[in-house]
Known about the structure:
By secondary structure, the chain is mostly helical.
Amino acid sequence: MLGVLIGIIVVAILIYIGIVLYQRYLLKQITDLVNKKNDLMDLPVASDLDEIGNINLAGSSLEEYQNLQDDYRNVKNNKFPEIDELAETGQQNVNDMKIFDARSDVAGIKDAIQVIQSESDRIQAALDQIKQENEDQQNEVKVLRHKYQDLRKTLLAKNMTYGPSIDMLNDNLQRLENAFENFAQTVESGDHKKAQGQLQQLQSNTKNLESNLEAIPDLYIQLNETFPGQLDEIKTAYSQLINHNYAFTDERIPDDINDISQKVTENLDTLSNLRLDAVKGNNETIANRIDGLYDAMQTEIDARTEVDGSFQTIADYIEHAEKQSHTLLIEIDRLGQSYVLNGKEDDQAHDLEARLQDIRNEHDQDAEAITNQPVVYSEILQRMHEENDQLDDIESKQTAINDSIQKLIEEEKDSRRTLHQFDLEIHEIKRHIENLNLPGIPASYMDYFFVVSDEIEKLSENMNQVKIDMKQIDQQLGMIDKDMKTLAKKTTEITDNAALSEQIIQYTNRYRHSNEAVDNASKRAQKLFDEDYDYAQSLSVISRALEAVEPGMVDKLTQSYQDQKNTQY
Length: 569
């Protein structure tokens, strides 16, 4: 029981100590917040309000200042006393052990201080802006006044460089100066909000005027000096060229000069109205048209230089091509007596001669025109280039035709050598067949042999004609070459079949008395060999019989024959 009582006493003491400590904590918070309130009362807002109140303000600026005064007065007369009252109540609640009420009072003081802090910052920022605007605008009045004085001096000193735009420039400057005076009066009256709008418009208009003053001199120089000088130069140059027998594809050059001069005058009027974007665009158009006139004349000057330097070269090229054509036609006629010209070389050569005649006529007409009348040299130069290209093409075709007909002679020599080789080869085949001493030659082989022999004879007759058709000769040579290969193959087959058939028949004699099938096969193979001249079938019959009694021997005998064979066929 005593222990419980002691425990209760200890807890009570601890609670008391906690309450006392928390009271002290709350009282310290209240003291600190009151000190912070006092610091806020010492902010320079009040002195800045008094300072700005000494500046002349009007309009919306004055209204804004008055609103700031009212806002600060509300803070001073209501918020600060509210904090003092809450602090006093909070201290009393702490002393009366009303802890929860005291905590609420502390929270209220904090909220009030936050409101005062926020309002003070806002009011201070607005006051700083008013002061800054006043200072900036006062400085801007000085800057603009000096700038307009300089602009006025510039217009007076350099009025000749602005041409017809000087009157409107002066008018614009006068309007700016009048607007500036209104701005200065607004600044002096203290209506800084209104003055700020006026200042922005002034700055924009002033920048535009300065930009015009910078751009106009170059534009005016183009219109007053550059373009007129260039047009005078073009007039003089055009007259000189006409006097020296030049002509132009576009005969409107004098009209263009007058039209461009009129455009220059019109653009001066545009400049006087300060429509600078239009002036710039018009000047570019005028400059391009003038460049076009220069280019037109320079084209003819350059063309004449090239024509004078190359005209005779083309004439010499034409003469050279004509000589080549004459020589080619003679050669075609000469070779045409000995060969059939299947490539229409004669027609092609005459076509080239006709083209040469057209080029000659065109060139002679240009020569006469250059001598007797004004000419457009660029057109003559264009024709010269085309003539040169045509002459290159003609010469290339002449060379190709000549090479083609000259090949006929070599082709004839090659064909005669090939014919001679075929003749030697077919006689060699004939001797080979005769030397085989066979009982007879198959009729099919002899027919093919005589066909090939007739082909060679026919080719020889064609080669000995007065006028040779080399295309036909080439076709015959190709056919004979193919047939000779076939005849050689057939000759080899006869040679091999006959030789092997004889060898195998002889070899099988050893089996004839002991093997009736072999004996019968041997008799049949011998008959095919001696009477029918069918050496392939004879070989086939006897080979089957031998293979039946002695497998593999046919291959051995065949290989032995091939190893010992020493003839071409």
